[in-house]
Design brief:
The chain is of the alpha/beta class. The protein contains 18 helices and ten strands. Among the domains are: 119 residues, 3-Layer(aba) Sandwich (Rossmann fold); 134 residues, 3-Layer(aba) Sandwich (Rossmann fold), CATH 3.40.50. It catalyses: phosphoethanolamine + CTP + H(+) = CDP-ethanolamine + diphosphate.
């Protein structure tokens, strides 16, 4: 009996040893796997914090810089900013000071505060630097690289020359941090000034002669044909050829959401200026989606005179489309806001500013806003700035001698630039 109690079952012992051995093997395998993964991870740098920092540095956004006067800002300026933004992830824009413009070109038409409003409103601009220098100096370039973390300095393929005839971007090119974009053909501030001068009527004979001479200089000698009534149409100066691709490039490409509050505002938006920007900003704040109607050239001429608009329909449409507060435009909107139009575009509110070229619409027969007024969806907005297209034209006319000298100075600088370049190349 004792022998029976003290004996061990050989099968049971063998089974227990096998289980212990299996557990030992499993422990070794698991431990080896953990050690192997850890070593592999250290080799690849996956959990290593410094390696993560290196990876993040590679993902740093590319910041590009573009500067300019942006005087009488138009769709050509906007297209330049669009192209510049496409060369990086963030676009920083320097707006040249009034003093620098006066010293290098002549008096600006629009002061710095208005030019800042215009540039800041362009939807491709991420940051704006006021009072930028006209020329990229060594100190300012270093500030751009160190303080603003700029990777490249951008400019158009047209020459930008200093009064002494030298290239304003020579240092940036020498540093290897310069990139070039294509200039938008068919528009310039100089040509627009020429169109504006065509709007001036009932001048004395001597003034008319001066005006004609200045107009030729500003529009590079392009002659203006008279229509049957003997009047001149400033829009004929335009050499802009609109394409569907350019319109798509300027468009947001997104429609309103199903429950969006759509606000509608219309107008000529001729010589797009800071006053337009501020009322559009105000209008956009009234809803979720801002729809802007751009009146046809024919309607503008019929209501504002034969010499209006200065910019044609497509030029005006692109300027408005470039504004960050605008979601969509109607190119060639009807003069009257109809019930069908309100239904088609699901318009919730129609607005109009207190400052406009024509503001007696409610006193006239055929009020263009009669339908939205009757529906209770019309609102007058206080315009933040007292600026109209006529304001800009008056600035030009009152300072025509200064602008004549400004244009001559620019022409002389460019002539010296090309002469020097030809001499260097041996032409």
């Amino acid at each position: 009996m004792g022998a029976t109690a003290g004996s061990m079952d050989p099968d049971a012992g063998s089974s227990e040893n096998a289980q212990r051995w299996a557990r030992f093997i499993a422990t070794c395998l698991i431990g080896g796997t953990v050690i192997g993964v850890s070593l592999l991870g250290l080799h690849l740098g996956i959990p290593h914090q410094p390696s993560l920092k290196i990876w993040r540095r590679k993902k740093k956004p590319v910041r590009v810089y573009m500067d300019g006067c942006f005087d009488m800002m138009h769709y050509g300026h906007c297209n330049a900013l669009r192209q510049a933004r496409a060369l990086g992830d963030q676009l920083v824009v320097g707006v040249v000071s009034d003093a620098e413009i006066i010293a290098n070109k002549g008096p600006p038409v629009t002061p710095l505060n208005e030019r800042m409003i215009m540039v800041s409103a362009v939807k491709w601009v991420d940051e704006v630097i006021p009072d930028a220098p006209y020329a990229i100096t060594e100190d300012f370039m270093r500030k751009l690289f160190d303080e603003y973390k700029i990777d490249y300095i951008i400019h158009g393929d047209d020459p930008c020359v200093l009064p002494d005839g030298t290239d304003a971007y020579a240092l940036a090119k020498k540093a290897g941090r310069y990139k070039q974009i294509k200039r938008t053909e068919g528009v310039s501030s100089t040509d627009i000034v020429g169109r504006m001068l065509l709007c001036v009527r009932e001048r004395s004979i001597s003034d008319t002669q001066n005006h004609s001479s200045l107009q030729r200089q500003f529009s590079h000698g392009h002659s203006q044909k008279l229509d049957d009534s003997g009047s001149r149409n400033g829009t004929r100066v335009s050499h802009f050829l609109p394409t569907s691709r350019r319109i798509v490039q300027f468009s947001n490409g997104k429609g309103p959401g199903p429950d969006a509050r759509i606000v509608y505002i219309d107008g000529a938006f001729d010589l797009f200026h800071a006053g337009h920007v501020e009322i559009l900003k105000h209008a956009r704040a009234m809803g979720d989606f801002l729809l802007v109607g751009i009146h046809t050239d024919l309607n503008v001429s019929a209501n504002r005179g034969a010499h209006r608009p200065i910019m044609n329909l497509h030029e005006r449409s692109l300027s408005v489309l470039a504004c960050r507060y605008v979601d969509e435009v109607i190119i060639g909107a009807p003069w009257e806001v109809s019930k069908d139009m309100i239904t088609t575009f699901n318009i919730s509110l129609v607005v109009h500013g207190t400052v406009a070229e024509i503001n007696d619409f409610q006193k006239k027969e055929g009020n263009p806003y009669a339908v939205p007024i009757s529906m209770g969806i019309f609102k007058i907005l206080d315009s933040p700035l007292d600026i109209t297209t006529t304001t800009i034209i008056r600035r030009i006319v009152s300072n025509h001698e200064a602008y004549q000298k400004r244009n001559e100075k620019k022409a002389n600088s460019e002539r010296r630039y090309y002469d020097d370049k030809a001499y260097i190349l041996g032409d």
